[in-house]
Design brief:
By secondary structure, the protein is an alpha/beta fold. Helices cover 38% and strands 18% of the residues. The chain contains 19 helices and 19 strands. Helix 2 (40-51) packs across helix 4 (95-109) and helix 4 (95-109) crosses helix 5. The longest helix is centred in the first third of the chain and has 17 residues, at 122-138.
Length: 504
């Protein structure tokens, strides 16, 4: 078959599943043709434009012609000893249209490699993989070297005579560990767990010059589960210092530009009008929340607008590990749950100005279907706190725990008060007071990781009485330890004597 444009309707492809031991690849110069190009990015560009045909959508059936910004991405990622590259691109920038032929290039570039296309789930991983398979099918020169296994359980492309395979995998640690990819492409890295990205990175390096290419749109939130979003963390690292072998490439609109202007859209997305219709972007601007539009269409990190507490602000507090000394005067905050949420008991050491977590009860993973919070254990920890510490006041949200709180009130009297956290008239001033104490660094804390996670997971909802905290519906996480900490601090404020005023 000749080289160049291929009409799939005019030729009969070779059988895709060649199980015969006598199978040999078709005679071809496809490997020697590009081997003489020393610079890897130049080799990739030449291969993609010389062998790959657009399989679908705009330009379908025509050879690839890379845009200038796509060439720049390849040159900055495939050369100069880069081992890990991160591409941050807005939606509609043609990520899949570039990654699919790049996967094909990786499979044909060097012998003995394993090329992995990964994403948050198998469906996402197959987006680029399936398009790569379509590219291979459209060119007999490529197809003649491959065995394509289309079974749903283990889809893959093999180049048997080269010892190479290309396969999709979900970006989970269990799926990735043991694969040892030579080239890995991770899509939507802003939504991938940090442990998974680390598993992929540490599994590489067995092949010289192996590349981990992580691509995505800025994830929902700079912090997830109390830890920096892995994409955000890499962005910060490369902004702080030069790390050999790592590059972070970002296409985004500068923060000061008008989000309503097509000029801003074009600045963020060099593929505007090519990969995405500007009218679609205009409709998104008119209908999406502004923060969501800025994230998806302008490639900007916007959690700063939604987060109740910034990570840098909380992390500026002094950490003083250890339990509260016996006999210390404290106030307590309690937020309880039944089975799905976290139950938290937090103390505020009045003398030291320190927040200390006394107990956290979260649903284990995996958990029995009938699992619930061990109420007797929780009550035991509360009783121990009253026995060992000088508890001045305990504020407790009565939701699901009213019976137990009434029992505690019978034992400890007016030191136990029900405090409805759903009442903005109470919660907004208490939340603002706690926030100001953090900003002014009037608090210290014990360093409990779960407390930090709950603090950074909260988002603010503005009310006429001030801000109240809630979960982000797009990424629901626990905030119960934070609520208990606010209650403990509010209890101490309740005890403080009212200011005296002189009348003249």
């Amino acid at each position: 078959p000749g080289h160049g444009h291929v009409d799939p309707d005019t030729w009969a492809p070779l059988p895709e599943d060649r199980r015969r031991a006598t199978w040999t690849p078709a005679r071809s110069d496809i490997f020697a043709r590009y081997a003489g190009i020393k610079r890897r990015s130049s080799r990739a560009i030449a291969f993609i434009e010389g062998e790959c045909v657009v399989p679908e959508g705009r330009g379908a059936g025509r050879p690839y012609k890379l845009l200038p910004f796509q060439r720049r991405l390849l040159r900055r990622s495939l050369d100069a000893g880069i081992l890990q590259a991160v591409w941050s691109l807005p939606r509609g920038a043609g990520k899949t249209s570039l990654t699919a032929p790049l996967l094909v290039f990786f499979a044909f570039d060097r012998p003995g490699v394993t090329v992995v296309a990964a994403a948050t789930g198998m469906r996402g991983a197959r987006l680029a993989y399936d398009k790569a398979v379509s590219i291979i099918r459209r060119n007999p020169r490529l197809l003649g070297q491959c065995r394509i296994h289309g079974d749903a359980t283990a889809p893959r492309v093999e180049l048997p005579m080269r010892g190479t395979q290309l396969l999709p995998l979900p970006a989970t640690e269990a799926a990735i560990v043991g694969q040892g990819p030579s080239e890995a492409l991770v899509d939507e890295v802003g939504y991938v767990d940090a442990d998974t990205l680390e598993a992929i990175a540490t599994g590489m390096g067995k092949t010289e010059g192996s590349l981990l290419l992580a691509i995505g749109t800025p994830g929902v939130g700079t912090v997830r589960d109390g830890e920096d979003n892995p994409m955000w963390r890499l962005r910060k690292l490369t902004g702080e210092r030069d790390i050999p072998g790592l590059v972070y490439l970002e296409h985004a609109a500068p923060p000061g530009m008008d989000p309503a202007s097509p000029r801003t859209w074009r600045r963020a997305n060099p593929g505007l009008g090519i990969f995405v219709d500007p009218r679609r972007v205009a409709l998104d601007y008119a209908t999406l929340p502004l923060s969501r539009f800025r994230q998806m269409r302008l490639g900007q990190w916007v959690q700063q607008e939604d987060a109740w507490m910034l990570a840098d602000r909380w992390d500026a507090l002094v950490v003083e590990p250890g339990p509260v000394p016996a006999g210390s005067s404290v106030t307590l905050g309690f937020d309880g749950s039944v089975s799905r949420d976290t139950t938290a008991l937090v103390a505020y050491d009045i003398g030291a100005g320190r927040i200390v977590v006394l107990g956290l009860w979260a649903r284990p993973s995996p958990a029995p279907r009938d699992w619930s919070v061990p109420r007797a254990e929780v009550l035991g920890v509360i009783d121990r706190a009253f026995a060992e510490l000088d508890v001045q006041l305990m504020l407790a949200d009565p939701w699901h725990w009213r019976t137990e709180l009434q029992g505690l009130a019978l034992t400890y009297g007016d030191k136990v008060l029900e405090w409805n956290t759903a009442a903005a008239t109470r919660m907004a001033p208490a939340t603002d007071a706690f926030y100001q104490a953090v900003v002014k660094r009037e608090l210290t804390w014990d360093g409990t990781p779960e407390l930090r996670a709950h603090v950074l997971s909260a988002v603010a909802r503005t009310t006429p009485l001030g801000s109240v905290i809630t979960k982000d519906a797009r990424r629901p996480q626990h905030i119960d330890a934070l609520i208990a900490a606010i209650l403990a601090y509010e209890a101490a404020r309740t005890l403080a004597p009212a200011p005296s005023y002189a009348i003249y």
